[in-house]
Specification:
single chain; about 350 residues; mainly alpha; 2 domains; about 0% strand; globular
């Protein structure tokens, strides 16, 4: 497989980074959501099994294996993208197809046996069907755009100019979504700065998208577009504001969205702590579900969230996600401010 895939690697770049395949960010977001849903499915199986008279490993072991498979798919995709071997994505195409089919069969089986939305396991299975279907669609889109299989002439991709320039060491636009969110790509620079004093040569050149000339041209085009819409030349500060919003409005809107999401997740902490205190105060945290189908108990969302351990895990994920969104909001706002000042 490695030998077959290496034949498609026609792009040679100097940096130890990669060229993003189509749907790169969407794939990472869907995979993160998939991992979270699988964690919920594992927890739901353990909680359901805890109230049963006998052990039922099938309630959580398949979900645990699917969780490991999802992590493996991320590592596998990362290495394929780094090496630019799109032909090796065929393995993921088969996996998403099989996962989608098997989860759909399970979902249909639940429907046939009268399991509905009131049971959490039914909702989680439906979510997994949607997620696996979307990941399969992303994989098919890579085939369609890159034309790396089933096509006689695969699409050749030219690496960005920044990746061909050894002087550019600011690689944030070219790393994957996880590295962007954790700033992992800066580790090499931080280690270098720790060993010896840094200078301008160590920092390197700015990427083309962040240079003052590039942003000036971008802002000037937005200003000229306003001028062409009117019979007279735009005057006053209002026109400047409109040009700035047109040229730099999208990243500012993205920063605001990240901040809103972070603020909304801030409510999760007090709610989870309140639920934990309430359940611990009751003394008896044992769930007594009433629904039993196919020989096992099916718990509802309310019964699932009445478990203090579940709330503690949700609290951890909520706080982790809140800080990630907050830092992303700060980063995008600061980077946009630098570009805006350079343009002016």
């Amino acid at each position: 497989l490695l030998g077959w895939g290496s034949q498609s690697s026609k792009v040679h770049i100097h940096h130890s980074t990669w060229l993003h395949f189509p749907g790169h960010n969407l794939r990472w977001i869907l995979t993160f959501i998939l991992l979270f849903v699988l964690v919920c499915e594992i927890a739901e199986g353990i909680v359901s099994d805890g109230v049963s008279e006998s052990r039922h490993l099938h309630l959580y072991m398949p979900a645990g294996m699917a969780f490991l498979a999802a992590i493996t798919s991320v590592v596998y995709y990362h290495n394929i993208e780094t090496s630019n071997f799109p032909k090796l994505l065929i393995a993921l195409l088969f996996y998403w197809t099989l996962a989608f089919i098997t989860k759909t069969i399970k979902f249909v089986k639940f429907c046939d046996n009268g399991v509905g939305f009131s049971q959490l396991r039914f909702c989680l299975t439906g979510l997994l069907v949607v997620l696996y279907g979307m990941l399969l669609a992303v994989e098919i889109n890579v085939i369609r755009v890159r034309r790396y299989v089933f096509f006689k002439t695969p699409k050749e991709v030219k690496p960005p100019e920044d990746l061909q320039d050894l002087g550019v060491r600011f690689l944030q636009p070219f790393v994957n979504l996880l590295s962007k969110g954790t700033y992992w790509w800066m580790n090499t620079f931080i280690k270098t700065a720790h060993k010896k004093p840094i200078d301008l040569k160590t920092i390197g050149k700015l990427p083309i998208a962040m240079r003052a000339l590039t942003n000036y041209i971008h802002l000037n085009e937005a200003f000229e577009a306003q001028k062409n819409k009117r019979s007279t030349s735009p005057q006053g500060s209002r026109s400047i504001w409109r040009a700035l919003c047109c040229a730099f409005g999208r990243p500012l809107l993205l920063s605001s969205t990240f901040r809103i999401l972070a603020d909304l997740l801030g409510f999760a902490g007090p709610l989870c702590i309140s639920g934990i205190v309430h359940n611990v105060g009751k003394g008896n945290n044992t769930i007594r579900p009433q629904t039993k189908i196919l020989g096992v108990f099916f718990i509802s969302s309310q019964e699932f969230l009445s478990n203090a351990y579940v709330l503690a895990v949700l609290l951890f994920f909520a706080l982790l996600l809140q800080r990630t969104f907050l830092q992303a909001s700060y980063y995008v706002a600061i980077e946009t401010g630098i570009n805006l000042r350079g343009a002016i």
